[in-house]
Amino acid sequence: MGDSSQNSENELIARAKSGDYAAFEAIVSKYEGRIFGLAMRLVRHREDAEDITQKTFLSVVEHVTDFREEAPFAAWILRIATNHALKVLRKRRGLDIIPARGDDEAEDYASMPLPDFIADWHKTPEKLASDGETKALLTQALDELSDSLKATFLLRDVEGLSIDDTAKALGIKPGAVKVRLLRARLQLRERLTRTLGDRDRVVQTSHRHASDEET
Description:
- This protein is about 65% helix and about 0% strand.
- It is mainly alpha-helical.
C-alpha cells in the first residue's frame, strides 16, 4: 500500500512538472494542512501562517521542475515552508534566526549545560504532542524555545524529516542539527518535567556540563 501511495505521488509530481493544474490542486490538497500546521507552530499567528502556506505553494508551482527525486517530496516542500516561515520571523524580530555559517555544532555536547530538572519519563516530549491533556502545555513549552531550536525540533521530531533533510531545510550542517535537537529536547524535558514529571524521580542539577555526566 505504501508503494502504491508513493507511485501515486510520483505520478502527481510528474504531471505537475508538465504543467497539469489538476495535479497541482491534488498536491495542495494533500499537503495544505501539514504546511499550515508547521507554519502555525513556527510563527504562532494565523494570518502569517496562511500567507506562508500560500507562498509555499506558489514556490512549488514556480520551482517544481527543480525537484529531484533523490529526496522525498515531503522533505522538499517542508523545506520551502520552513524557509518562508523563518523569513517572517526574521522580519518580525529584526534578527538572524539561523546563523549564516551554520557551524554551531562547534558547541558540542561536552559544553552543553544540563537543565535544572531532569526526570525519567515514559513518554518523550515529541510523543506528548499527541496527548490531548498535555498538548497545550507542550505548545507553550515550544514557544519558549529559540526559533532555531524550535524549527529543528519540529522538522526532525514532529514532521519526521531525517537529520540530513532537516539540515538542508535549515541551511546548516547535520552536526548542527544534532546539537540543536539535543538542546531542544533537554529544554522541553526540563520545562515539562516541572509540571508532568514524577517528583519522586526528579533530580535537581546545578547546570553541570554534559561531559560531567559521562562515565
